[in-house]
Amino acid sequence: MKLLLIVANDEFIDEITSALIQGGFTATEVASTGEFVRYGETILLLGVEENQVEQVIDKLRNASRHHNKDKNLPFFGKVLIYQIALDEYAKIIGMGAS
């Protein structure tokens, strides 16, 4: 399992999240500023299986084709993707009150 941190310029976040949702992925959006993230940038957190990492990157490449002259750099290089290996992962789904 991998935790992907996608740091992107705010102007691309809607397009990125739409592409991920269309691919069946969900993400948590975190808006922050400081040393790690500059003003105008957003972090997306995604938990994916190791074999899905390339799918996520491909979704970002495909979503950015009209922004990008060099198809190897999503959104003109304004998107950073960090991969963090997870030893353990649990998804807890709350039960609604009945």
Automatic annotation (TrEMBL):
InterPro entries: CdAMP_rec, N-reg_PII-like_a/b, N-reg_PII/ATP_PRibTrfase_C. Signal peptide: none annotated. Keywords: Receptor. This is Cyclic-di-AMP receptor. It comes from Amedibacillus hominis.
